[in-house]
Amino acid sequence: MSTFDQEKIEQAVRMILEGIGDDPDREGVIDTPKRVAKMYQEIFSGISEDPSEHLRTVFGEDHEELVLVKDIPFYSMCEHHLVPFYGKAHVGYIPKGGKVTGLSKLARTVETVTKRPQLQERITSTVANSIVEMLEPHGVIVVVEAEHMCMTMRGVKKPGSMTITSAVRGVFEKDEASRAEVLSLINR
Ligand SMILES: Nc1nc2c(ncn2[C@@H]2O[C@H](COP(=O)(O)OP(=O)(O)OP(=O)(O)O)[C@@H](O)[C@H]2O)c(=O)[nH]1
Ligand SMILES: [Zn+2]
């Protein structure tokens, strides 16, 4: 995978400004290519990171019941239109064999996965799969709710519409009662 290329983005943004019929040399936008490149470095920083890495932090804690971090806010960029979609992620798992990770690491995993050109479905399944791979828990549930600006400010123009995706693994797949319990906590 190629690395972040600030100059290439600056050239491209300048061309976009030209392409939309603006003057890239006028005072107000002269520094815009630089600003956008700097912003992209920040909002696409997850491309060069491995989400699973955060989950290497484990404590040998004997807790084999639900751990749920809900309402993790995120901003991502729709890979089809490169406009934002944003909302909340809820991440729950039931640890096994003492593999309990730090609570912030669940939010950091969401951060890495969302800071890329994305699809909401892929965010949801990548977070769930990273937890399965690294923590080998009894079960994982990830619910993501988001508003997509490509559906609000343009195109179909449906502001307020929310997309909800979920990924369930292990016990949450098989046990309806466990799934219902965690969903009721998320919706509380
Ligand atoms: N499944 C999925 N679709 C998404 C996501 N973000 C945006 N999309 C959709 O991607 C689709 C792209 O459709 P296209 O027909 O190729 O592009 P378009 O002509 O701009 O589509 P419209 O948005 O309907 O105007 C649209 O239906 C978007 O709503 C996402 O996270 N998951
Ligand atoms: Zn889109």
From TrEMBL:
InterPro entries assigned to the protein according to its UniProt record, in alphabetical order: GTP-CH-I_C/QueF, GTP-CH-I_N, GTP_CycHdrlase_I, GTP_CycHdrlase_I_CS, GTP_CycHdrlase_I_dom
Reactions catalysed, as given in the entry: GTP + H2O = 7,8-dihydroneopterin 3'-triphosphate + formate + H(+)
MF terms in GO: GTP cyclohydrolase I activity
A Pfam family hit: GTP_cyclohydroI
Domain of life (superkingdom): Bacteria
Signal sequence segment: none
EC assignment: 3.5.4.16
Swiss-Prot/TrEMBL keywords: GTP-binding, Hydrolase, Metal-binding, Nucleotide-binding, One-carbon metabolism, Zinc
Pathways per UniProt: Cofactor biosynthesis; 7,8-dihydroneopterin triphosphate biosynthesis; 7,8-dihydroneopterin triphosphate from GTP: step 1/1
Subunit structure: Homopolymer.
Family: Belongs to the GTP cyclohydrolase I family.
NCBIfam families in UniProt: folE (TIGR00063), PRK09347.1-2 (NF006825), PRK09347.1-3 (NF006826)
Entry protein name: GTP cyclohydrolase 1
